[in-house]
Amino acid sequence: MPEPETPVTFPPAFLWGAATSAYQIEGAVREDGRTPSIWDTFSHTPGKTAGGENGDIANDHYHRYRDDVAMMADLGLTAYRFSVSWSRVQPTGRGPAVQRGLDFYRRLVDELLSHGIKPAVTLYHWDLPQELEDAGGWPERDTALRFAEYAQIVGEALGDRVEQWITLNEPWCSAFLGYASGVHAPGRTDPEASLRAAHHLNLAHGLGTKALRTAMPARNTIAVSLNSSVVRPLTQDPADLAAVQRIDDLANGIFHGPMLHGAYPQTLLAATASVTDWSYVRDGDLALIRQPLDALGLNYYTPTLVSAAPADAAGPRSDGHGASEFSPWPGADDVAFHQTPGERTEMGWTIDPSGLQDLIMRYTREVPGLPLYITENGAAYDDKPDPDGRVHDPERIAYLHGHLRAVRRAIAEGADVRGYYLWSLMDNFEWAYGYGKRFGAVYVDYATQARTPKSSALWYREAARSGELPPVSPVE
């Protein structure tokens, strides 16, 4: 008989969370003073999202949040990461707050706390107020200044009850999918503008962090969530290793360089010199961006495999970030992307938990002493209810088991990982993919808004309650 598997246990204070974002679940896009964000505009533009779908109703969480929080408690969650809709709080992106909008988040936070669930607030998850985009959006410096004002407003409103704060979610997507490849809102395809946007997102993080510090009790913690890529070479050929450097700079160094070390990588500046002169980086900006952080959030789904491109290549296309004639990698047309071998999720992303462990250990070495949280990790599958209405998703259970084991291995190697936020709590509007990709641990029937915990949610509940990973089998 095979030896029984050694139990995989986590530290007692480890947070077992799930994550969502405002535009993906809230709905109620025209209620209580909310005005359009760039995602409202983008999703209502023909041809931009699958089936022309949008977040007008989404999961109707704005009206169903109490039931949703009760469901979170039933699933054993000890933490919940959600984002605030900037357009709901500050409809034009400037000026005084709309209290009705803030009141929704006050009620949500109070409901979470009453169920013993720690709220973690993300200030920006891609939904820029449309009026700020009309004024130039993230390529304009003023947007970073407006973000600081918004951060101050939300910090003052919720800082007495929310201890965990995240400034930005995946600024790489905001900058490069939004302004370079155009597959995300606002759908622009200007490589130079995407690099300007990246700098001003960095600046917004720094200014927003400073604003939160003045608005909240000192006990509160501030982090940023980066979708840092684990970039691997196709071969050990020097040209492929140079391709790794190019993409690592654009995926990772462009954000963690200034945020954590106060400088952009010189290799990044050289590689993008043909695209931009970086003259928008002003004296003092890098010091403003490099604010002391209390933690770092890491989002991980799949590794990236690259090589030098053949001389006749048309540029990177198969990078897993949506189809576009325009590249999200400015200055890197000489890099080719490859599908890594192995099983894939419904997104076409290869399942490789070793990448998560590698990512954790990289930042453990790079910023020793800085606590880490896995702020997103999960998988999309083609989930469907069975005749009895139950939703079995053994693939997702195996995915979560493998990646949580990788987190535990990293902890054993000395990484200070404090918690894990499953993406996502429930099926939702998956951006340009519409409602066709289901990442949730909870199944949502969009016609009725009925929520049904999948097998993975019950498996995760057992892990959260025991602090130990159950076997890889459905939990009834």
Structure description:
- Keywords: Carbohydrate metabolism, Cellulose degradation, Glycosidase, Hydrolase, Polysaccharide degradation.
- InterPro entries: GH (IPR017853), GH_1_N_CS (IPR033132), Glyco_hydro_1 (IPR001360), Glyco_hydro_1_AS (IPR018120), Glyco_hydro_1_beta-glucosidase (IPR017736).
- It holds the Pfam family Glyco_hydro_1.
- This is Beta-glucosidase.
- It is globular and about 55 Å long.
- About 55% of the residues are buried.
- An eight-stranded parallel barrel has the order 1-2-3-4-5-7-10-11, surrounded by five helices. Strands 6-8-9 form a three-stranded mixed beta sheet, covered by helices on one side.
- The protein contains 15 helices and 13 strands.
- It has helices at about 20-25, 40-45, 60-75, 85-90, 100-115, 130-135, 140-160, 170-180, 190-215, 240-260, 265-270, 285-290, 355-365, 395-410, 455-465; strands spanning about 15-20, 80-85, 120-125, 165-170, 220-225, 230-235, 295-300, 305-310, 335-340, 370-375, 415-425, 440-445, 450-455.
- The protein is α/β, with parallel strands linked by helices and about 475 residues long.
- Strand 12 and strand 13 form a beta hairpin.
